[in-house]
Amino acid sequence: LAVPPPRRATQKKPPRRFQVRQIPMLVLLDDQGKTVHRDITPAVTHIVEDSDGDSFADQFPWHEKRHTNIKQMLGETFLKGDMSEVAINELEGKYIGLLFSATWHWQCRRFSQMLEYMYEKLKGEGKEFEIIDMDYSGPDMPWLALPQKACDVKQKLGEAFRVENAPPMLVIIDPEGSVVTTEGVEIVSKDMEGECFPWTPKPLYDLSTLEPEILGEMNDTVTCVCLCEGCDDATKEAVAEAMMPVAEEAFNAAKASGCEAGMLFFTATETSDVVYQLRMSCELGEPTGVPQLVILDIPDSGAYYVFDGENISTENVSAFIEDYDEERLERRELQDDEEEGEGDGQ
């Protein structure tokens, strides 16, 4: 089957929902519309076989490992630096960072230094946080590691999170074993003090005080932002209240379907470098007492769309997004600093 060519808006929604980064991409849904696997293209291409010798076809319906309880994949024991063992039940109630790294790689060594600083700080503050390295790195290792005999565990986790040949990668899971974020490396680089721990996703963010767990996603995800840094406190609060129902609906729908959010939602309540750059790139001018609503579609060659109105209500936010989906809005493209500089010199 295929979507009829005239239905352009229908063709546009799935790529946003399923975070399509490249083609081909084959997403599997169950009979309820919930995501079974976000992309089985590599498996189809290579017709892989599992350790039991079952063919790829026999593994239907190919449930994605990432959406299972990750704790159940870790095994029963882990090693400290002194080779003493720690049981899985000793990690109850803790957020866990799964570290995929390589001691011979300079980027991994540099990242490990930053990670160790944050790790020791969080542990010193009594935060419920632990790290499990996929490889035992020696007696000076500050955290836990998989036993050397747990090669199958490492392989399955690597497959579940699509670990490539260019580490490091840090995956954060919550106490129930669900994935919080796969952007742990970005988090550590932006939040070495651990101020935003445990970095759990939210429906609505404030672009002015951007949480590190979302930084890595902005350039790859359609974003709806209401800039209100020039407004009074009452207006800022009203804007957040208007956007929250729409943001929660999208957030909960993504969670229920098993895929990542197809649209991120932000307010911008204070001036910051990120907010200023957004205003300049979208040619929105200086902040005023009137909120401004925009949709950024950076993956689409830096496209953006501006709401034509001043009343930021829940209904108007929903209608604005619907107009975007139905391609009824005027498409513009972000302006970068080089273009602005060239224009000033002419």
Describe the fold and architecture:
The protein has helices at 8-17, 41-46, 106-124, 151-160, 184-190, 212-215, 233-257, 273-281, 314-325, 337-345; strands at residues 28-29, 35-37, 77-79, 85-87, 95-100, 129-133, 144-145, 169-173, 179-181, 204-206, 222-227, 263-268, 292-297, 303-306, 332-333. It has 10 helices and 15 strands. The protein is globular. The strands form 4 sheets. Strands 10-12-11-13-14-15 form a 6-stranded mixed β-sheet. A 5-stranded mixed β-sheet has the order 7-6-5-8-9, covered by helices on one side. Strands 1-2 form a two-stranded antiparallel ribbon. The model is unreliable at 338-346 (pLDDT under 50). With 346 residues, the chain is α/β, with parallel strands linked by helices. The longest helix has 25 residues, at 233-257.
Task: Give a short synopsis of this structure.
Helix content is 32%, strand content 17%. With 346 residues, the protein is of the alpha/beta class. It starts with 7 loop residues before the first helix and ends with a helix.
Element-by-element helix/strand order: HEEHEEEHEEHEEHEHEHEHEEHEH
Give the overall pLDDT as a whole number. 82
Strand order of the largest sheet: 10-12-11-13-14-15
Q: What amount of the residues lies in strands?
A: 15-25%
What is the structural class? Answer: alpha/beta
Give the helix tally: 10
Which of globular, elongated, flat, extended, rod-shaped describes the shape? Answer: globular
Low-confidence stretches: 338-346
Helix proportion: 25-40%
Could you tell me how far the N terminus lies from the C terminus, measured between alpha carbons in angstroms? 53 Å
Largest sheet: 6 strands, mixed
> How many individual β-strands?
15
Q: Tell me the Rg in angstroms.
A: 23 Å
